[in-house]
UniProtKB/TrEMBL annotation:
One of its GO terms (cellular component) is extracellular space. Residues 1-16 form the signal peptide. InterPro entries: Ca-dependent_lectin. It comes from Mytilus edulis (Blue mussel). Keywords: Signal. This is Uncharacterized protein. It comes from the Eukaryota.
Protein backbone atom coordinates (compact mmCIF):
# COMPACT_ATOMS: atom_id res chain seq x y z
CA UNK A 1 0.00 0.00 0.00
CA UNK A 2 2.87 2.46 0.88
CA UNK A 3 4.66 1.75 -2.43
CA UNK A 4 1.49 2.52 -4.36
CA UNK A 5 1.12 5.79 -2.49
CA UNK A 6 4.76 6.72 -3.23
CA UNK A 7 4.25 6.04 -6.92
CA UNK A 8 1.07 8.10 -6.91
CA UNK A 9 2.77 11.03 -5.19
CA UNK A 10 5.79 10.81 -7.47
CA UNK A 11 3.54 10.92 -10.50
CA UNK A 12 1.69 13.90 -9.06
CA UNK A 13 4.90 15.76 -8.28
CA UNK A 14 6.26 14.97 -11.73
CA UNK A 15 3.29 16.69 -13.33
CA UNK A 16 3.77 19.65 -11.05
CA UNK A 17 1.43 20.71 -8.33
CA UNK A 18 0.45 24.23 -7.67
CA UNK A 19 0.04 25.04 -4.03
CA UNK A 20 -1.40 28.22 -2.75
CA UNK A 21 1.15 29.89 -0.41
CA UNK A 22 -0.98 32.90 0.24
CA UNK A 23 -4.27 34.45 -0.64
CA UNK A 24 -3.12 35.51 -4.19
CA UNK A 25 0.33 33.97 -4.49
CA UNK A 26 1.09 30.68 -6.19
CA UNK A 27 4.32 28.93 -6.77
CA UNK A 28 5.45 25.71 -8.40
CA UNK A 29 6.11 22.81 -6.00
CA UNK A 30 9.13 20.79 -6.75
CA UNK A 31 9.06 17.00 -6.65
CA UNK A 32 12.16 16.85 -4.48
CA UNK A 33 10.75 19.07 -1.66
CA UNK A 34 11.00 16.76 1.43
CA UNK A 35 8.70 18.79 3.65
CA UNK A 36 5.82 18.77 1.21
CA UNK A 37 6.30 15.09 0.48
CA UNK A 38 6.33 14.14 4.16
CA UNK A 39 3.28 16.29 4.86
CA UNK A 40 1.30 14.68 2.07
CA UNK A 41 2.42 11.24 3.14
CA UNK A 42 1.39 11.90 6.74
CA UNK A 43 -2.07 13.05 5.64
CA UNK A 44 -2.48 9.99 3.44
CA UNK A 45 -1.48 7.65 6.26
CA UNK A 46 -3.93 9.43 8.57
CA UNK A 47 -6.69 8.99 5.97
CA UNK A 48 -5.85 5.30 5.61
CA UNK A 49 -5.97 4.82 9.38
CA UNK A 50 -9.35 6.55 9.52
CA UNK A 51 -10.64 4.32 6.74
CA UNK A 52 -9.30 1.24 8.54
CA UNK A 53 -11.20 2.30 11.65
CA UNK A 54 -14.37 2.85 9.62
CA UNK A 55 -13.98 -0.55 7.95
CA UNK A 56 -13.31 -2.21 11.30
CA UNK A 57 -16.36 -0.50 12.78
CA UNK A 58 -18.46 -1.62 9.82
CA UNK A 59 -17.14 -5.18 10.19
CA UNK A 60 -17.94 -5.17 13.89
CA UNK A 61 -21.43 -3.83 13.22
CA UNK A 62 -21.98 -6.38 10.46
CA UNK A 63 -20.71 -9.25 12.61
CA UNK A 64 -22.88 -8.12 15.52
CA UNK A 65 -25.95 -7.92 13.30
CA UNK A 66 -25.10 -11.27 11.72
CA UNK A 67 -24.69 -12.86 15.14
CA UNK A 68 -27.97 -11.31 16.27
CA UNK A 69 -29.69 -12.57 13.14
CA UNK A 70 -28.21 -16.03 13.65
CA UNK A 71 -29.38 -16.08 17.28
CA UNK A 72 -32.85 -14.91 16.26
CA UNK A 73 -32.96 -17.44 13.43
CA UNK A 74 -31.84 -20.23 15.75
CA UNK A 75 -34.46 -19.23 18.32
CA UNK A 76 -37.19 -19.07 15.67
CA UNK A 77 -36.03 -22.35 14.18
CA UNK A 78 -36.07 -24.05 17.58
CA UNK A 79 -39.54 -22.65 18.26
CA UNK A 80 -40.77 -23.93 14.90
CA UNK A 81 -39.15 -27.32 15.53
CA UNK A 82 -40.86 -27.55 18.92
CA UNK A 83 -44.17 -26.51 17.34
CA UNK A 84 -43.75 -29.16 14.65
CA UNK A 85 -42.85 -31.77 17.26
CA UNK A 86 -45.97 -30.91 19.27
CA UNK A 87 -48.03 -31.04 16.07
CA UNK A 88 -46.57 -34.45 15.21
CA UNK A 89 -47.32 -35.68 18.73
CA UNK A 90 -50.91 -34.43 18.41
CA UNK A 91 -51.24 -36.12 15.02
CA UNK A 92 -49.77 -39.34 16.43
CA UNK A 93 -52.20 -39.21 19.35
CA UNK A 94 -55.10 -38.55 16.98
CA UNK A 95 -53.96 -41.40 14.74
CA UNK A 96 -53.80 -43.75 17.73
CA UNK A 97 -57.30 -42.66 18.74
CA UNK A 98 -58.53 -43.25 15.19
CA UNK A 99 -56.91 -46.69 15.13
CA UNK A 100 -58.59 -47.58 18.41
CA UNK A 101 -61.88 -46.30 17.03
CA UNK A 102 -61.44 -48.32 13.83
CA UNK A 103 -60.57 -51.43 15.86
CA UNK A 104 -63.69 -50.91 17.99
CA UNK A 105 -65.79 -50.44 14.87
CA UNK A 106 -64.32 -53.61 13.37
CA UNK A 107 -65.08 -55.51 16.58
CA UNK A 108 -68.61 -54.14 16.53
CA UNK A 109 -69.02 -55.11 12.87
CA UNK A 110 -67.64 -58.58 13.62
CA UNK A 111 -70.05 -58.99 16.52
CA UNK A 112 -72.92 -57.72 14.39
CA UNK A 113 -71.91 -60.08 11.60
CA UNK A 114 -71.72 -63.00 14.02
CA UNK A 115 -75.02 -61.96 15.55
CA UNK A 116 -76.54 -61.72 12.08
CA UNK A 117 -75.16 -65.13 11.20
CA UNK A 118 -76.68 -66.54 14.38
CA UNK A 119 -80.06 -65.17 13.36
CA UNK A 120 -82.15 -66.80 10.71
CA UNK A 121 -84.98 -69.22 10.19
CA UNK A 122 -85.42 -72.56 11.93
CA UNK A 123 -86.97 -75.77 10.68
CA UNK A 124 -87.23 -79.37 11.86
CA UNK A 125 -85.50 -82.01 9.80
CA UNK A 126 -87.63 -85.09 10.41
CA UNK A 127 -85.88 -88.45 10.26
CA UNK A 128 -82.35 -87.05 10.76
CA UNK A 129 -80.05 -86.26 13.68
CA UNK A 130 -78.08 -83.50 11.92
CA UNK A 131 -78.32 -80.59 9.47
CA UNK A 132 -76.60 -80.49 6.08
CA UNK A 133 -77.88 -77.31 4.42
CA UNK A 134 -75.40 -74.63 3.33
CA UNK A 135 -74.83 -72.15 6.16
CA UNK A 136 -77.05 -74.22 8.47
CA UNK A 137 -76.28 -75.12 12.09
CA UNK A 138 -77.67 -77.79 14.36
CA UNK A 139 -79.57 -76.34 17.31
CA UNK A 140 -80.32 -79.73 18.84
CA UNK A 141 -81.19 -83.29 17.89
CA UNK A 142 -83.93 -85.36 19.47
CA UNK A 143 -86.99 -87.53 19.04
CA UNK A 144 -89.98 -87.12 16.74
CA UNK A 145 -93.04 -87.15 19.00
CA UNK A 146 -96.80 -86.71 18.96
CA UNK A 147 -100.14 -88.12 20.07
CA UNK A 148 -100.69 -91.89 20.22
CA UNK A 149 -102.26 -93.08 16.99
CA UNK A 150 -105.17 -94.97 18.64
CA UNK A 151 -106.39 -95.66 22.17
CA UNK A 152 -108.62 -98.66 21.34
CA UNK A 153 -111.86 -96.72 21.42
CA UNK A 154 -113.32 -94.39 18.80
CA UNK A 155 -114.24 -92.02 21.61
CA UNK A 156 -110.57 -91.19 22.12
CA UNK A 157 -109.83 -89.53 18.78
CA UNK A 158 -109.20 -85.98 19.99
CA UNK A 159 -106.02 -84.31 21.17
CA UNK A 160 -103.34 -82.44 19.22
CA UNK A 161 -102.48 -83.33 15.66
CA UNK A 162 -99.09 -81.63 15.37
CA UNK A 163 -95.75 -83.34 15.86
CA UNK A 164 -92.92 -82.02 18.03
CA UNK A 165 -89.15 -82.57 18.07
CA UNK A 166 -88.33 -83.34 21.71
CA UNK A 167 -84.66 -82.56 22.55
CA UNK A 168 -82.22 -85.32 23.38
CA UNK A 169 -81.29 -83.58 26.65
CA UNK A 170 -84.51 -82.39 28.32
CA UNK A 171 -84.96 -80.44 31.53
CA UNK A 172 -87.53 -82.37 33.60
CA UNK A 173 -90.04 -81.02 36.08
CA UNK A 174 -90.68 -82.69 39.46
CA UNK A 175 -94.47 -82.57 39.23
CA UNK A 176 -96.70 -85.39 37.96
CA UNK A 177 -98.91 -84.56 34.95
CA UNK A 178 -102.59 -85.47 34.62
CA UNK A 179 -103.94 -88.29 32.46
CA UNK A 180 -105.60 -86.24 29.72
CA UNK A 181 -102.64 -85.35 27.51
CA UNK A 182 -99.60 -87.41 26.64
CA UNK A 183 -96.84 -87.17 24.09
CA UNK A 184 -95.32 -90.32 22.59
CA UNK A 185 -92.35 -91.17 20.49
CA UNK A 186 -92.96 -91.93 16.82
CA UNK A 187 -91.96 -94.82 14.60
CA UNK A 188 -91.86 -95.64 10.92
CA UNK A 189 -94.84 -97.94 10.38
CA UNK A 190 -94.21 -98.25 6.66
CA UNK A 191 -91.44 -100.24 4.93
CA UNK A 192 -91.50 -97.72 2.04
CA UNK A 193 -89.40 -95.29 4.10
CA UNK A 194 -86.36 -97.40 3.29
CA UNK A 195 -84.61 -100.67 3.91
CA UNK A 196 -84.99 -101.78 7.53
CA UNK A 197 -87.15 -98.77 8.45
CA UNK A 198 -90.24 -100.72 9.53
CA UNK A 199 -91.00 -100.12 13.25
CA UNK A 200 -87.82 -98.07 13.77
CA UNK A 201 -88.15 -95.00 15.99
CA UNK A 202 -87.86 -91.62 14.25
CA UNK A 203 -85.17 -89.05 15.16
CA UNK A 204 -85.33 -85.33 14.38
CA UNK A 205 -83.08 -82.27 14.33
CA UNK A 206 -83.84 -78.59 14.83
CA UNK A 207 -81.78 -76.63 12.30
CA UNK A 208 -80.92 -72.93 12.08
CA UNK A 209 -80.49 -71.54 8.59
CA UNK A 210 -78.67 -68.25 7.94
CA UNK A 211 -81.56 -67.20 5.71
CA UNK A 212 -84.61 -65.18 6.74
CA UNK A 213 -87.34 -67.74 6.07
CA UNK A 214 -87.91 -71.43 5.43
CA UNK A 215 -90.83 -73.33 3.97
CA UNK A 216 -91.78 -76.97 3.41
CA UNK A 217 -93.14 -77.47 -0.10
CA UNK A 218 -95.18 -80.67 -0.62
CA UNK A 219 -95.26 -82.28 -4.04
CA UNK A 220 -91.72 -81.21 -5.05
CA UNK A 221 -88.19 -82.49 -4.52
CA UNK A 222 -86.50 -79.26 -5.67
CA UNK A 223 -86.97 -75.62 -4.74
CA UNK A 224 -88.40 -72.90 -6.94
CA UNK A 225 -86.06 -70.34 -8.50
CA UNK A 226 -84.47 -68.03 -5.96
CA UNK A 227 -84.79 -70.52 -3.10
CA UNK A 228 -82.11 -72.76 -1.58
CA UNK A 229 -82.71 -76.41 -0.74
CA UNK A 230 -82.20 -77.54 2.86
CA UNK A 231 -83.29 -81.14 2.45
CA UNK A 232 -85.81 -83.24 0.52
CA UNK A 233 -87.75 -86.41 1.19
CA UNK A 234 -91.25 -87.86 1.33
CA UNK A 235 -94.40 -86.51 2.92
CA UNK A 236 -95.65 -88.59 5.87
CA UNK A 237 -98.44 -88.55 8.45
CA UNK A 238 -100.54 -90.83 10.62
CA UNK A 239 -103.10 -93.15 9.03
CA UNK A 240 -106.45 -91.67 7.99
CA UNK A 241 -108.37 -94.02 10.33
CA UNK A 242 -106.17 -93.16 13.33
CA UNK A 243 -106.06 -90.08 15.54
CA UNK A 244 -105.56 -86.74 13.80
CA UNK A 245 -102.02 -86.13 12.58
CA UNK A 246 -100.02 -83.43 10.83
CA UNK A 247 -98.00 -83.84 7.65
CA UNK A 248 -94.21 -83.82 8.05
CA UNK A 249 -91.37 -84.10 5.53
CA UNK A 250 -89.30 -87.21 6.32
CA UNK A 251 -85.74 -87.09 4.92
CA UNK A 252 -85.24 -89.24 1.81
CA UNK A 253 -82.45 -91.09 3.62
CA UNK A 254 -83.94 -91.51 7.09
CA UNK A 255 -81.98 -92.47 10.17
CA UNK A 256 -83.16 -94.53 13.12
CA UNK A 257 -82.89 -94.09 16.87
CA UNK A 258 -80.53 -96.81 18.16
CA UNK A 259 -82.37 -99.58 20.00
CA UNK A 260 -85.77 -98.26 19.01
CA UNK A 261 -87.13 -101.15 16.95
CA UNK A 262 -89.76 -102.52 19.33
CA UNK A 263 -93.06 -101.83 17.47
CA UNK A 264 -94.66 -99.84 20.30
CA UNK A 265 -97.30 -98.43 17.94
CA UNK A 266 -97.38 -95.07 19.70
CA UNK A 267 -97.13 -92.23 17.18
CA UNK A 268 -97.02 -94.02 13.82
CA UNK A 269 -95.97 -92.55 10.46
CA UNK A 270 -96.87 -93.66 6.94
CA UNK A 271 -95.81 -92.49 3.47
CA UNK A 272 -98.48 -90.16 2.06
CA UNK A 273 -99.95 -90.70 -1.43
CA UNK A 274 -102.11 -88.59 -3.73
CA UNK A 275 -105.84 -89.31 -4.05
CA UNK A 276 -107.54 -87.91 -7.12
CA UNK A 277 -110.96 -86.32 -6.94
CA UNK A 278 -111.06 -82.80 -5.65
CA UNK A 279 -107.32 -82.98 -6.22
CA UNK A 280 -106.89 -82.58 -10.01
CA UNK A 281 -105.21 -85.42 -11.86
CA UNK A 282 -103.27 -84.41 -13.86
CA UNK A 283 -101.08 -82.73 -12.85
CA UNK A 284 -101.17 -85.21 -9.94
CA UNK A 285 -101.44 -89.00 -10.20
CA UNK A 286 -103.47 -91.29 -7.97
CA UNK A 287 -101.61 -93.28 -5.26
CA UNK A 288 -98.09 -92.00 -6.07
CA UNK A 289 -95.86 -91.15 -3.12
CA UNK A 290 -95.67 -87.43 -2.37
CA UNK A 291 -92.28 -85.75 -2.54
CA UNK A 292 -91.46 -82.87 -0.22
CA UNK A 293 -88.65 -80.35 0.07
CA UNK A 294 -87.64 -77.77 2.67
CA UNK A 295 -86.41 -74.54 1.09
CA UNK A 296 -84.91 -71.35 2.50
CA UNK A 297 -84.42 -67.79 1.27
Amino acid sequence: MAQELVCLLSFTFALGLQVSLGEHAKKRLLLNDPAIFNSRLAKLESTIQSMDKVIESMNNTFNAKLKSMESSYQANLQTKVRDHERHIQNLTSSLSTLRIGIANQQNTMTQMSQSFQERGATYVRWGKTGCSGTGTKLVYSGYSSGQKFFYGNDYYRGGPSNMLCLPEHPELSNTTAGTNSYIYGSEYDDARFGSGAQNQDVPCALCLSNTSTTVMIPGRKSCFSGWRIEYSGFLASGAYHHAASSFVCIDKQPEFIPGGRSDNNDKTLFITGYKCGSLPCPPYTDDLQVYCVVCSK
